[in-house]
Amino acid sequence: MPQTPAEREARCARCGKRFLYRSIASHKPFPFCTTRCREIDLGNWLTEKYALPGEGRSEVENETEESADES
Ligand SMILES: [Zn+2]
Fold first, then answer.
1. Which of 4, 27, 56, 63 is deepest in the core (most CB within 10 A)?
2. Ligand 1 center to 46 CA (angstroms)
3. What's the burial of 10, exposed, middle or buried (CB within 10 Å: 0-12/13-18/19+)?
4. What CATH number has the domain bearing residue 29?
């Protein structure tokens, strides 16, 4: 029978710090070391997502219709 260690080691997806956890279910911030890291990462992701629309895609589609006036 293989010995199953009580704790496993993982690396935080945000800060890269190693942390120990027993199971993913019991380590709420997984795959981050702490809830703080998780919140920071989540926050960055959300702000990036909200920052994308609204800039850089307004006049691209309008330009094709004006040249269809020549016949
Ligand atoms: Zn971390």
1. 27
2. 18
3. middle
4. 3.30.50.10
Ligand 1 mean position to 33 CA, how many Å? 4
Residue 71 to residue 68: CA distance in whole angstroms: 8
pTM to 2 decimal places: 0.57
Closest CA to 20 of 6, 9, 34: 9
- Mean pLDDT over each residue of the chain, to the nearest integer: 81
pLDDT of residue 53 exceeding 90, the answer is no
Does a structural domain hold residue 61? no
